[in-house]
Amino acid sequence: VRELLRVPPVRLARELGADPRKMLQVLDEVRVAAHVAASGAPRPGQAADPLATPTAPEPAAGPHAAAETSFPPTDAGGATRPTLPPRRAAATALTMLEARERTNLHIVTYSRQLDSLFDGGVPLGEVTEICGVPGAGKTQLCLQLAVDVTIPAAFGGIDGDCLYIDTEGSFAVDRVLDMTEAVLCHLDRVAHSRGPPELRAAQIEALNALASPESLLKRIHYCRVHNCAELVAIITTLDEVVSTYTRVKLVVVDSVAFHFRQDFADMRERARLLSNVAQGLNTAAAKLGLAVVATNQMTTKVQQNAQGLGTTRSARANGFSDGKASESYLAPALGESW
Asked: According to the model, what pLDDT value does residue 301 have?
């Protein structure tokens, strides 16, 4: 049962040829039944086990009991002790796992390689970091995810909006328009392909509701930030932004490293702001149930040799190598603190 509950509902519905919404309802019923079986509690509408050990009834509260509980607790010296608030019940690991699986939603990309890499799509409730050298396609992937998040639930999507935070000014609306047209064409082919009649009817109805590519563009909310202060400000107020745009399910930061790689007079201030950004993104993903995608740039790291000096491949090629074993490699920017 646990292996079954780990499978995303969209993938299971696709393999069985069923409606994703009905499959999600079936998985919820299986999850509740498994929890009831594990806890031993009777199901709703089921009589209690007659062989279970009966518990002693609580004594009725009489006048003496009322008199006893009317006095505040005191210590040995007669001084009144402060009344502590009631303790909160601790959540079990099983309860946390069930809550996580209940919200185990993904943003599908309709790319077999990407969906397989992300185990069903970009997950909600987590921060996904995309690293790569310039020209690797980080912004292209972010733009595609901004369009994919609007895919209706009948097609396996989550039918949400996107908040796109652009730090580099690389957001190309013409490219996004081309992507929306391609997505609509693909959804039209899916809706008119083979499948259960009920699912095809729901897909055609959802496709007709989209009307045009402009309807998808309206669901991508763009925000251009020009410095670290603006980036920190919008990330710390993500809860207010989401309360205004209630359908936002994806937050894209492209890129998180751009402003932090500029000259900073105080590196401690840089580390503090970077920590605030990381904490804000993690809090928004966990608390608000958002899929947060942040791109990061790459930098060259030089491995130190035995004498504490480092040489890169280009330096050794030009004859500047000291003969010691040293190597340079590419690593995500912003350091260990990020």
From this structure: 83
Beta-carbon contacts of 258 under 8 Å, excluding residues fewer than 6 positions away, are 167, 168, 297
Query: Would you state the torsion angle of the CA atoms of residues 252, 255, 256, 259, taken in this order, to the nearest 10 degrees?
Result: -140
Q: Which two tokens stand for residue 168?
A: 């580099």
Phi, psi angle pair for 332, to nearest 5°: -55, 145
Higher per-residue pLDDT: 14 or 106: 106
Task: Give me the numbers of helices (H) and strands (E) for the chain, helices first please.
Answer: 14, 9
CB-count burial class (<10 Å; 0-12, 13-18, 19+) for 66: exposed
The pTM is what?
A: 0.68
**What separation in angstroms does the CA of 77 have from each of 48, 67, 81, 83?**
49, 21, 10, 17
Instruction: Give the Cβ contact number of residue 115 at 10 Å.
Output: 20
Query: Which structure tokens are listed for 262?
Result: 């500029």
- Alpha helix stretches (DSSP H) within 172-326: 173-191, 197-210, 213-217, 228-236, 238-244, 267-288, 313-317
